[in-house]
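thoughts on both lines:
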Amino acid sequence: MTEEIIIAGFGGQGVLSMGKILAYSGMMQDKEVSWFPSYGPEMRGGTANVTVIISDERISSPILNQFDTAIILNQQSMDKFENSVKKGGLLIYDPNGITRHPVRTDIDIYTVDAADESARMGSAKVFNMIVLGAFLKLKPLIGPEYMHKGLEKSLPARHHYTIPENEKAIERGKEIIQPKFLLN
């Protein structure tokens, strides 16, 4: 099993930390992982993306042009990465701020209203964990106990009190993800 993932959006949406938590959680589950961030100097408010590979086998290169899954959180990233999803792959996106929705018919497409849900939960900071939960619902690569360990490893100790809130957001993401277009 190898899953090649791109997570892309604005800096400040937790794109890089979402990838880092996913990668650490994969390591805790004894998977081979790669975490390859990319962001401009403006970071917060600028575009950011991260490539995460989780595999049972050694990973030869962290650099990819095609992905099994794209998690898209803004229009610029939709424009850039929609066509980089492999045929038969998966695209997950938050429709908030998206003006041109994906049009491909050879991939599975899901939406997760993470921006709205994080507002309902009273914390914009859990936005990325809602999105991560939506992904894990569709691709349960990481067990919950390893997600907990990944959160512990990637969050500074002074923020460990947020782990229960983050885990609740992950579970909420699993509940609210909706199909937009499915191949079957």
Notes: The chain has six helices and seven strands. The first helix runs from residue 15 to 28. The mean pLDDT is 92. The chain has one domain: 2-181.
